Amino acid sequence: MLIFPTIKISEDTPFKRGESYGSQAAYYIGVCINTYKTALARADVKWEIAQGVAMRYLKWTEESENMPDMVDEIKGIASGSGMDLMDIAVINCAYELLHFPKECTAFALQREATLGGHVILGQNWDQDPRFAAHAVLLDILEEETGNHIFGLSEAGQLIKSGICIHKDGSATAICGNSILSNLDKVGIGCPTSVLRRKALTFTRMEHILNLVTGSARSVSSNINVATTENEIRAIELLPEVVEREDSLLIDPYYILDSMSGAVTHDNSIRSVPQIDMMRHGHPRGTHLKILFSEATGRIDLNYIKRCLSDHEGYPGSICSHGCDENDNWQTIASVIYDLDAHSAHVCCGAPCTNDYIEFKL
């Protein structure tokens, strides 16, 4: 059975947690750095330029976003792994630097939609299969807060998707997709990996929304969030627009509420489709929403797994497979977070051919 390596961390400061993470995952972090060196080179971006941009992002995050704890954790990762801080910064700003156009199908379900009355969030992670070689699972105990965080990450990043069990027993889960707009630019802001990791530490949806919508950003992204308050949201974050020649009015974010107890998302911009640079022929998120609507009130883990294995619209299906040597994009992981059961179900590889492993928190 395929499974990603698990990095277990239990420390009482962000820097110590980063050190523990870095020392345990040093090999995989090295693989991750080399993977991104190749990816950036293919995109004609020099590594030294990427380092400089990433360090500006970290400085902004520490000073203007008031998240020194997140930056301390990144510094700890560099210290523990023996890697250059600038290289770890690039890994954590990879989304902003490369802005992958096709990445993930995500969902969240409210209690009224599920058979057991649980809040559930998850996604398929679609990527170049070479990226699977540096994927890790993070099992983090913040000793000073009591937060227990579990999630999937690229080695050296703070997190890609995850669930946090708070000291009071409540839970928050988060994941996200890439979206690409004609507003995206080289700029400054809070890295997506940092934003997701910080958002997990909040218990209330209103506080999460204030955090993610209030952060600065230069590229578009989507974040899906669920809490045990039975609140779920898909949030499309867009760069702030100062002036447009076409006079199109665009807000810096759009919050998509649930319908029939579910929200789903892929890589299309639903709020302002005129600025969408991707415009998929087969909308995976819409198809997933239809599958969920057909079983509202009866959705269980087995049904979710079948939905995440769906091949309608191949090769651009929910369970994605590269169709030729020029399009090798595929589902390299699938995750399901059950907020009420305090559990995570992780599939290494495409869910149509591999099994999910349950992790109890």
Keywords, please?
about 350 residues, alpha+beta, 8-stranded mixed sheet, 6-stranded antiparallel sheet, 14 strands, about 25% strand, globular
Polypeptide structure, described:
It contains ten helices and 14 strands. The longest helix is centred in the N-terminal third of the chain and has 17 residues, at 26-42. The protein has helices spanning 14-24, 26-42, 47-63, 68-81, 85-92, 94-98, 192-199, 205-214, 284-293, 301-308, and strands at residues 6-11, 105-109, 120-127, 135-142, 148-154, 161-165, 171-178, 221-227, 231-237, 253-256, 262-265, 330-338, 343-348, 356-360. Strand 13 and strand 14 form a beta hairpin. It has an eight-stranded mixed beta sheet. 49% of the residues are buried. With 361 residues, the protein is an alpha+beta fold. The two termini are 21 Å apart.
Layout: helices, strands, pairs:
Elements: E1 6-11, H1 14-24, H2 26-42, H3 47-63, H4 68-81, H5 85-92, H6 94-98, E2 105-109, E3 120-127, E4 135-142, E5 148-154, E6 161-165, E7 171-178, H7 192-199, H8 205-214, E8 221-227, E9 231-237, E10 253-256, E11 262-265, H9 284-293, H10 301-308, E12 330-338, E13 343-348, E14 356-360
Parallel strand pairs: 1-4
Antiparallel strand pairs: 2-3, 2-11, 3-12, 4-5, 5-6, 6-7, 7-8, 8-9, 9-10, 12-13, 13-14
Helix pairs in contact: 1-4, 2-5, 3-4, 3-5, 4-5
Instruction: Name the poorly predicted regions.
Output: none
- Main β-sheet, spatial strand arrangement: 1-4-5-6-7-8-9-10
| Total helical segments | 10
Write the element-wise H/E pattern from the N-terminal end onward. EHHHHHHEEEEEEHHEEEEHHEEE
The average pLDDT score comes to 93
Assign an overall shape.
globular
Number of strands: 14
Strand content: 15-25%
Please give the oligomerization state of what you see.
Answer: single chain
The main sheet comes to: 8 strands, mixed
The chain-level structural class is alpha+beta
Indicate the radius of gyration in whole angstroms.
19 Å
Query: End-to-end distance, in Å?
Result: 21 Å
Helix content: 25-40%
